[in-house]
Write a structure and sequence with these properties.
Layout lengths: L3 E5 L2 E2 L6 H19 L4 E8 L3 H9 L4 H18 L6 E4 L6 H14 L3 E11 L4 E3 L11 E10 L1 H13 L4 E3 L1 H12 L5 E2 L1 E3 L9 E2 L2 E6 L1 H6 L1 H4 L3 H6 L3 E6 L3 H15 L6 E5 L2 E3 L2 E2 L10 H8 L1 H10 L7 E2 L2 H26 L15 H5 L1 H9 L4 H22 L6 H22 L4 H12 L12
Length: 465
């Protein structure tokens, strides 16, 4: 049984990935690596959401066949996950993975058997970017809404709203941070209307999973996509997991906090336990997005600055609630301050001091104080609510405390045994910090541990950018 079944959202493949996708990969990976380091069994799922009408439109604009276009962009997302060192256990493609369609169909049949699906006519304004009907302008996309009238299948979302609200109120469905929880509760306190969950085959570009028993209708892309959380691990693994956790962006909270639990309630399947919601990366005061034309290519950034600097920025600079303004100058300043002058400098100093020293492994010496002694506890509390800025601050505090300890103790002035004792404690404290750095910057942490295991002069574990 998995202690933690963890997932990113699966990404639309209507365009190449951008820095916002990398942010979610990094934040989810920190949660996964941290949990594994604490001895938990983790299964991390990611992938691509491919049955979207806008993928049909994007393929036509690119003058490519739909299969070729979708496969090409799916490969780019998998490459992004690999380059940014996402330690995923499974990667699902919803249009090609043989596990997926049967689960979507079974979910549909289960909801139908519960009396939660019915045919009706819909008239409203549709945002192609979100793939949903809206009551007003879309805050996520600049494109105008399109007026649509059509006959669709509907899901009785209104029936399940009171139950979902109770689950959130009593913490059985945890949403972090509280700002996003309150948004969901505000939505549930209003007029929750039933949801259109199919599209006519012709409007969906003949691209998607046919509604069971009604092949001229295709399953709505969000109903299809959300099912990946079960189709990839399988229902048995989903239900047996000790904890089921989704890491998602704030723009899709309602899909995961209301629609997904409602589908599962209708189908009689266990719900997720928590939603860990991150904010956006902004450029020039606007969210980075494919449709907004301000996407930052994450491959270019890695080529230029390396994965450690980028992963650290995603953890260190993005607040728990509120957007983070990205610039290369800010990236460089953050990496140099915390990784080159902070962690890297500490490892270099301690490795040089330990050269030729017979370390005393049971020595007792208070170097770094509470900043080191409580480091793991502080990181546990912060990562548990996806407050990675607070977690990285704990690391920065510990690094600074040990650096101050070196200046205070001045081990180079001490006689043999005293010097060995102090240096031994410096190595122990710095090794502990390196271990806690590993979920955030695994490459740098590995280099730091290697330097401390074979002390002496050598190249920096993180060179100044």
């Amino acid at each position: 049984m998995d202690d933690l079944l963890l997932s990113t959202a699966i990404a639309y493949v209507n365009a190449a990935p951008h820095l916002g996708h990398a942010l979610e990969y990094v934040q989810t990976d920190v949660v996964a690596r941290h949990a594994r380091a604490r001895g938990r069994r983790v299964h991390l799922l990611t992938g691509t959401d491919e049955h979207a009408a806008k993928n049909v439109q994007a393929a036509a604009a690119a003058a490519q066949s739909l299969d070729e276009f979708v496969a090409g962009n799916a490969a780019r997302f998998r490459q992004l996950a690999d380059r940014w060192e996402l330690s995923y256990d499974d990667f699902i493609r919803t249009s090609t993975d043989p596990r997926h369609r049967p689960v979507v169909e079974e979910l549909w049949r289960s909801c139908a058997a519960s009396g939660d699906l019915y045919r009706s006519r819909y008239e409203g304004w549709y945002c192609a970017g979100c793939e949903e009907f809206r009551d007003g302008p879309c805050p996520e996309h600049d494109a105008p809404l399109r007026h649509v009238e059509e006959d669709n299948w509907f899901f009785r979302l209104s029936r399940h709203a009171p139950t979902i609200r109770a689950l959130i109120d009593d913490g059985r469905l945890r949403i972090e941070p509280v700002e996003r929880r309150n948004e969901v509760l505000g939505f549930l306190a209003g007029d929750v209307r039933d949801l259109s969950v199919s599209r006519p085959r012709d409007r969906a570009g003949n691209w998607g999973i046919p509604v069971p028993g009604d092949p001229e209708q295709l399953v709505y892309v969000w109903f299809d996509a959300l099912a990946n959380y079960i189709s990839a691990p399988g229902l048995e693994r989903w239900s047996a997991a000790a904890r089921r956790s989704h890491v998602i962006g704030k723009g899709i909270v309602r899909f995961h906090a209301v629609i997904w639990p409602a589908i599962l309630l209708s189908a009689g399947i266990d719900l997720p336990d928590e939603l860990l919601v991150h904010d956006y990366v902004a450029l020039g005061g606007r969210k980075i997005g494919k449709s907004l034309g301000n996407a930052v290519d994450p491959d270019v950034l890695i080529d230029r600055y390396g994965v450690d600097a980028l992963r650290w920025w995603c953890a260190r600079e993005v607040p728990r609630a509120g957007e983070a303004e990205f610039s290369e100058d800010r990236l460089v300043a953050c990496a140099n301050r915390d990784l080159a002058h902070g962690a890297g400098n500490l490892v270099q100093r301690v490795a040089v001091l330990a050269d030729g020293i017979a370390l005393v492994h049971d020595a007792r010496h208070d170097i770094g104080g509470d900043a080191v002694l409580t480091l793991a506890e502080r990181i546990d509390a912060a990562v548990g609510v996806l407050d990675l800025r607070r977690a990285t601050q704990a690391l920065v505090d510990a690094i600074a405390a040990v650096n101050r300890g070196i200046e205070t103790e001045q081990p180079w002035k001490l006689p043999g045994r005293e010097r060995a004792a102090v240096v031994s404690e410096l190595v122990a404290a710095t090794s502990l910090i390196a271990g806690e750095l590993a979920p955030f910057v695994p490459g740098l942490a590995a280099r730091a541990r290697a330097r401390l295991a074979a002390p002496g002069a050598g190249p920096p574990v993180f060179a100044r950018l």
